[in-house]
Amino acid sequence: MLRSYLKDMKVNIRSGFNIKSSSGGKSVAELKKSKAVKETLEQTRQQPLEKTSSKKIDGTINVRWEYADLGNEKEPIYFVPPNTIYCNTSSDLYRFAVAKNRYYGPTWIRVLPYLSRIAVIMSNGSSLRPEEFNLKVDQATRYFLKQKKII
Length: 151
Prior knowledge:
With 151 residues, the protein is mostly helical. The protein has 6 helices and 3 strands. Mean pLDDT is 75; it is low at 15-27 and 48-57. The chain has a 3-stranded mixed beta sheet, covered by helices on one side. The longest helix is centred in the last third of the chain and has 18 residues, at 130-147. Strand 2 (77-80) and strand 3 (84-88) form a beta hairpin. Helix 5 (107-123) crosses helix 6.
């Protein structure tokens, strides 16, 4: 749903780099401490960004979804520029949103408020006043509900 929203709103999100690691079951903390990951990050930061060819790359969306245990102090699902969305797996609200319980309703409905906020933040580079932000979130929510043919 988020991908279709960003594509329709003509938002291009690109990754500066992709690190492929064969973690073999290592925890995130162990991977961060790994020398190979640190060296790769340093090399990537030092390299200048390559210019793309004359081909149009409109509609390219490359967003990384990361899962982290950040506690209830952080939002359940939130966006960190330039291209990472964090799912706070230790948050009570996140666990509720993705719980496999048919009595709670569809998962996408429970994730909808967070997806709407992420969509607005990703599609608008400037900061909005709270009233404007809430209106944009309402518009994004309507968009998602129209995609699912609810409204």
